What we know:
134 residues, 5 strands, alpha/beta, globular, Rossmann fold
Amino acid sequence: MFECLILGDSTGVGAGQAINRRYAQQCDVQAVERATAAQILTWRKTGKDYGACVFAMGSNDPAGAALATKLTKIRTSLCFRRVIWLLPYARPQAYTVSSVAARFGDETVDLNRFETRDRIHPRNYSQVASVLLR
């Protein structure tokens, strides 16, 4: 059974909906539109031990050291097994997220490989879900 936590911004909302349509609500989704890393840090922890976490964040933050510090705090406070980061379309933010993922040996899925209308959100989240569930 695929059980996970999807945490983050609007790309997390879309990915979570696509995964849960496919797997009948096996993933808890804690994601809202326009969420920043600072906001996510304030959210209450679920207390549940997940086999996998999908982190979709960084799009709504300026790239750089401050973002990397916040993402590191989020990473060390949640999900100690498999973590998959969705890299934002914006390259500076994607590089920051990727550097945090690399520090922990986590997986990444670059949203840049998916068609988009607005350079923020994938056009088809079912394609993102397919890649995440491989």
